[in-house]
Amino acid sequence: RPADAGAIAFADGSRVVAVDRRPMEFASMLELLRYLTTGADVQKGPAHPIDATTTLFGYVRPAAREMFEVVQTEDAAMSGGGATSITRTRFVEAAGATWELYAQLCNGAPDWCAAALTIYLQTMKEHPPPVPARGAAATGG
Predict the structure, then answer these.
(1) Is the dihedral of CA 45, 125, 135, 27 positive or negative?
(2) Largest CB tally within 10 Å, which of 12, 21, 86, 110?
(3) pTM of the full predicted structure?
(4) Are 103 and 4 in contact (CB under 8 A)?
(5) pLDDT in tens, 15-36
(6) Distance of CA 121 to CAs 38, 74, 102, 139, Å?
(7) What φ, ψ does residue 39 adopt, rounded to 5°?
(8) Which residues are CB-neighbours of 61 under 8 A, at least 6 positions away?
(9) Do residues 58 and 50 touch, judged by C-beta distance below 8 A?
């Protein structure tokens, strides 16, 4: 079990999805978004509209075996006019399994942030992403 692994959300064969107790590299939403959009080691995937006000963006850091799911919504009815949820997934090999450790940074209302995380976990379970190739940063715990 990786040292940073928290509560297990679900396990499927040699794949375990669990809370990541390691904090995000940036405590500020603005700093993290700036890094994801300008970092030399970050690859941006296509944007996927969810509805008229919400878009899903994907980013990958291949060398670190990390992916980031960014959900941004603009809704005049929400406090501040919108919200952003960023969920980072780190892929770590330990105990004969691939551990997908996730952490969320969210600036929306608690119920909106919880719903974004629930959808993320459902997607991870029903449509798991490909496991990045093992590299120098691939081992843990």
Answers:
(1) positive
(2) 86
(3) 0.88
(4) no
(5) 999 999 999 989 888 999 999 9
(6) 27, 22, 9, 23
(7) -65, 135
(8) 39, 41, 42, 43, 67, 68
(9) no
